[in-house]
Design brief:
Strand content: 15-25%
Shape: globular
Radius of gyration: 23 Å
Mean pLDDT: 94
Structural class: alpha/beta
Distance between the termini: 52 Å
Bound molecules: 3-acetylpyridine adenine dinucleotide
Strand order of the largest sheet: 3-2-1-7-19
Number of helices: 14
Low-confidence stretches: none
């Protein structure tokens, strides 16, 4: 390495730690991971709601090079996943690189380096800036009149207060995505009454969460080769099934649909079944995994409320039929602002161009990882990453490998700065837009995948195709070492309006 690089990483969650691990392996010593929270783990630190689990199988929800033969079950619980990331951080000495409780507030390109300011008021100059902030970290509260008037505790799933004891109380749950379903499964046996306010029913894929026996764990722990084989097998199966189903019509969609419909048919009461039947195709919203929800909803202490919420009052929730549902506590499993990405971080690139200006229309990127106007800046799990039911670790790792290749170019000293040019970025985004209509996300439903124009902000190909795009950096697509001029807005360069779905 001929040029020492100072690297700033924003976020000590799964993707930031994955990049940190690569930097250590490659011998880069001068890097800082800024973390807003008091501990590492990102999603798995912030979320601790009852029932929290992963909806991707554990053997696949790992770094490819760091198998964990000790996983206790198929879909691991949140605490076990956090412990996995903690162990990896320990193995690579990452904690000493992390500044806890010190969010990056602004970063400005000064012509050759990034001036990074953090919450503590400290400022530092870095050659490379990488945001690893995840997509689901800005909790979204429901826009319901009177929410602030509720006198009991109102808990967003990502801001859980463990001093609140919900056992033997009357609880209302708003939200029916992956999170709401997991919370309902966990609270149904312990709440005195549970009111599930359901605006849109979800499709639920019936996948059992079996425990791994001690014998099985010993066998798989015998050699890393077995774990790696298991990882590759899961990745292949997920690419063949879930990933294909989201982006191309085919037998995969037929099978998913049949399984979800079979699962729903287990609900005996036809009226209840009707209320639980979605009016969109399975996988249009991110499909929910598991077996417990229909059992939970049929319990005598659980009420499914499908009348719309009119307002929230101090004693509970009033629905449009005039009924006041009296509650001791309210759970808001109402999701996240998935279009925020690393914001509110104030990012300023060349010629004073801000991220909010660049993304005024909606978030976009060059191959999910870089952005015109922002040199030596990279994103992990950035716009149009393949977010469908797949291991986001695998996606972040492909992107981190690409960032490492760019970093090698910069470290060799032959290239001092690199920034994607607007034209290849625009062509890439136009290609994404053209491929969107055949994806399941455009088949007629609202979801967190869609931007404010209703366009999916995900990758309309398979993860394997995404990985192929992230091979060697194509320097023809980058402005290298040149003084970079202000960037035209992407929409001035190319039409990327999404054609209507067939
Ligand atoms: O959020 P969501 P989530 N009145 O946006 C409802 C990941 N995840 O936190 O569909 C009434 O999916 C809203 O209703 P509607 C996973 O990728 C992973 O559940 O808009 N309801 C919807 O039901 C997942 O996809 C794991 O009509 C209101 C719900 O709130 C992603 O996180 C575990 C409302 C929001 O669902 C997000 O899931 C859990 C209102 N005013 C989550 N506003 C893993 O296992 C919103 N809703 C890795």
């Amino acid at each position: 390495m001929s040029r020492p690089l100072r690297v700033a990483i924003v976020g000590a969650g799964m993707s930031g730690l994955g990049l940190g691990m690569r930097l250590v392996k490659a011998g880069y010593a001068d890097f800082t991971i800024f973390e807003k929270a008091t501990d590492l783990g990102g999603t798995w630190h912030h979320n601790s709601y009852p029932g929290l689990a992963c909806d991707v199988p554990s053997r696949f929800y790992t770094y490819a090079s760091e198998p964990n033969p000790g996983w206790s079950q198929f879909f691991p619980g949140g605490r076990e996943i956090w412990a996995y990331f903690d162990a990896v951080a320990e193995r690579y000495g990452l904690r000493e690189h992390i500044r806890f409780g010190d969010a990056v507030t602004s970063a400005t390109w000064d012509g050759s380096r990034w001036a990074v300011t953090s919450q503590s008021g400290d400022q530092g100059l870095f050659d490379i800036l990488v945001t690893a902030t995840g997509i689901l970290h800005t909790p979204k509260l429901p826009d319901i009149e009177g929410l602030a008037d509720f006198t009991g505790p109102a808990l967003h799933s990502a801001l859980w207060d463990h001093t609140v004891d919900l056992a033997d109380t009357r609880v209302g749950v708003i939200g029916n995505g992956s999170t709401g379903v997991q919370i309902v499964n966990a609270l149904a046996p312990e709440a005195r009454r549970l009111a599930v306010f359901l605006r849109t029913p979800q499709w639920i894929l019936p996948v059992p969460n079996w425990r791994y026996s001690a014998f099985g764990r010993r066998v798989i722990g015998r050699s890393d080769r077995i774990s790696r084989l298991a990882y590759r097998l899961y990745r292949w199966v997920f690419e063949l099934t879930f990933a294909e189903a989201t982006v191309h019509p085919g037998w995969q969609r037929t099978v998913m649909s049949a399984l979800c419909r079979w699962h729903l048919a287990r609900v005996k009461d036809p009226e209840l079944r009707r209320k639980l039947t979605p009016d969109f195709k399975p996988m249009c919203k991110r499909i929910v995994m598991g077996l417990g929800f229909y059992r939970a909803i049929q319990r005598p202490n659980v009420d499914l409320v499908t009348d719309a919420i009119e307002r929230i009052v101090p004693e509970g929730v009033v629905t449009v039929d005039g009924i006041t549902h009296r509650l001791d506590a309210l759970v808001l499993a109402t999701g996240f602002d998935a279009q925020a990405f690393m914001r509110p971080l104030a990012l300023t690139g060349v010629d004073g161009l801000t991220l909010d200006e660049a993304w005024a229309d909606d978030p976009y990127a060059y191959r999910s990882v870089a952005l015109p106007g922002f040199p030596n800046f990279f994103m992990l799990v950035g716009p149009h990453s393949p977010f469908g039911n797949f291991s986001v670790i695998s996606i972040a790792e492909a992107q981190a490998d690409y960032v490492m290749r760019c970093m090698e170019l910069l470290a060799r000293g032959s290239v001092r700065s690199m920034v994607p040019r607007p034209e290849p970025t625009a062509t890439y985004n136009a290609d994404l837009a053209a491929a969107m209509p055949s994806t399941i996300w455009m088949s007629g439903c609202a979801s967190w995948y869609l931007d404010k124009h209703g366009r999916p902000n995900t990758f309309p190909g398979t993860p394997a195709q995404h990985r192929a795009l992230l091979g060697e950096p194509d320097l023809d697509h980058f402005e290298v070492d040149a003084p970079v001029a202000a960037v035209p807005h992407l929409n001035d360069v190319v039409d990327r309006s999404v054609p209507t779905a067939q």
